[in-house]
Amino acid sequence: MSTGQIGGESALGAFVDADNPWPGLASFQEQDGAFFKGRDEEVAELRRTVQSQRLTVLFGASGLGKTSLLRAGLFPELRERDELPVYLRLSYEGTPRNLTEDVLLELLREAERHQVDASVRRGGESLWEYLHRRDSALWSPRNRLLMPVLVFDQFEELFSRAAERPGWAPQLRQFIEDLSDLAEGRPPEALKTRLEHEVETSRDFDFTRHRYRVVLSLREDYLAFLEELRERMPSIGRGHCRLLPMAGTQALQVAGLTEGRLVEPAVARLIVRFAAGADMDTDHPPIEELRVDPSLLSLFCRELNERRKAESAAQISERLVRESQTNIIERFYQQCMSGVSPAVRRFVEDELLTAQGHRDSRAYEDALLRPGVTADAIDRLVNARLLRAEERGGARRIELSHDVLTPVARTGRDLRAEQERIEAQQAAERERLQRERETSERERLAREAELARRETELAREKAARGEARSRRLMLLIGGLSIVAVALVGTTWWASREANRADTERAKALAESHNARTLLSQLEDQNQALSDALAGLEQAKANAAKALQSLKEQKQSNADTTQAERYLESAHQDARVAVAKAAAALKPRVYIHIRAEKDRVAAERLGLLLAKQVGVAFKGVELVSTGPNTNEVRYFRRHERKDADLIAAGLRDLGIQPVDVNYIAGYENATNIPPLHYEIWFGPGTRVGP
Fold first, then answer.
1. pTM for this one?
2. CATH assignment of 588-680, among 3.10.129, 2.30.30, 3.40.50, 3.30.70
3. For all residues of the chain together, what is the average pLDDT?
């Protein structure tokens, strides 16, 4: 069996010596007995009970120092009286196994560690058989007969952790049965059955000698579980020792254990009053009436001592006490909370504090009904001394272990509530902006659909007019066929001029196409569309006149000149239409940010700017570098006016200062379209109105 399945916590204990006499939340070890102060009466009472009773039950609330009382207080006393204390903390990890076998093996290991001459175990004899065998004995190096004292620490884990381990039920029942037989001094049923068939073997045992003691140490809130074993273990009710919080005078022995070397008496009184949650600036209530949690007292003293050493000071001063009290408790609180889920933290801060920030309690069973709150998490906080579990009115209740924790817990609750409020506000803002974007997108699609519908109607009308012209042209061709022979001589010339006219007409149509492309970018600019289309119709009419002139005036140079004038007029009309379309476009604005966290604020700024100045907000881009000041950039000199309007809009929205900068080299660029503007922010600028 691995030695790690049972044993002490010496590896976990804090280092303790003359310059570091307080272990904090760790327990005192047996070798730390010289620094374990304030519990002399409790140690004496516990020793007397252990020596007079076969079974002793030590109980008390979490954080009162039961482990330290056993190891640093009781164990040295027992060794002086020829007793062998065996520290036992059962392990319920791994494959289910015989726990009584673990206890016997730990007893033999402890004897070996202390050079005790222990009788050899015979075969697979049980713990009860080993302790009751007539020739079984434990002899000290001084040749003194020792009595083993089996000390089961944190025995409540048998009811909390082990009961939840799948497959352990048979082993737990057997262990409780074995422990009951040991505590009551009765032979196990299996041994009695064997002795009925092996009568001679019964002479190997002394059924009247019980040279051993058993100590069960557990949290007070688990006493009800232990009482359920009374039927099999009546001795439970005879040897009780209850550990209470320290009195103020006992706590003074802890805080001032260096006899003025590290802490002066007046400062020690301040430390005790703080640990008790009392006013540090008065003597009311008097220190004799104070009750102190020794774990918090040890924590506070150790942290103060660490800060003293960091400052290279000889003593813990009053200044250090007053400056450190909140920080020490806050760090302790945060360390405890770092290992639990947000649901458990919310339960502690919301349910175990009143609205005014005072301590409150909740039934253990009710706590487990909260989503995300588990028995393991609650027990972890109890073992860490942040929470305390007590039996009240037949119900197990949990609360913060001390009043000094309430200000820190309340601050944590307030900060969490503020963070949740900010997150909810940001989520609502993101949702609002998303709705606005969706609404804007629906409106844009509706405008585009309406524009497409109108263009379709215009196309149909033009097609109808073109069909009518085609019919008239066919009639004209038929009428002219009778003079076709006369026109043969001029056909080649007319064809060349016609091709030229077609080329010019194609140019006019291309410019018309450019105008229509610009028009497709307009948002709700119906008047501009109408003007541009009118210009296009005029251009086509002029082109048609040119063709007609060529056909009717085949050899007239003057008329050819007239046709060229018509074509130039078509070009001019197309250019005017394009200019009108471009003038109707809104300036397009892009916002550049340097941090992703500014995106929501930048989007909101863009929408407000669009409403205020009348620009088209196109989006937000994340960049890694930028200018040292806020600026609006434009890329064509004649677009300065709109850039100034955008800068003025930013200033009206609270962005100060704002510069307007022309970026050269893009006058005829194709990658930067007309009416393109960019907003850049300098370092440290608060984005958004």
1. 0.56
2. 3.30.70
3. 82
Contact 370, 351 (CB under 8 A): yes
> What residues pair up with 398 in beta bridges, in sequence order?
362, 389
Backbone angles phi, psi at 203, to 5 degrees: -70, -15
pLDDT digits (tens, 9 = 90+) for 118-166: 999 988 899 999 999 999 999 999 999 999 999 999 898 888 766 667 7
Helices (H) and strands (E) in the chain, counts: 22, 17
Would you call 618 exposed, middle or buried from its count of C-beta atoms within 10 A (0-12, 13-18, 19+)? Answer: middle
- Return the CATH fold of 3-244: Rossmann fold (3.40.50)
Q: Tell me the pLDDT tens digit for each residue of 548-581.
A: 655 554 444 444 455 456 556 655 655 565 455 5
Looking at residue 33, the DSSP 8-state letter turns out to be: G
Give the span between the Cα atoms of 196 and 321, in whole angstroms.
70
Please provide residue 622's backbone torsions phi and psi, each rounded to the nearest 5 degrees: -90, 125
Distance CA 606, CA 591 (A): 7
Indicate the burial class of 12 (C-beta count within 10 angstroms; 0-12, 13-18, 19 or more).
exposed
Residue where the block lists tokens 């969706």: 438
Residues 476-502 pLDDT 10s: 545 544 433 333 343 333 445 545 645
Pairing mode of beta strands 361-363, 387-392: unpaired
Contact 684, 637 (CB under 8 A): no
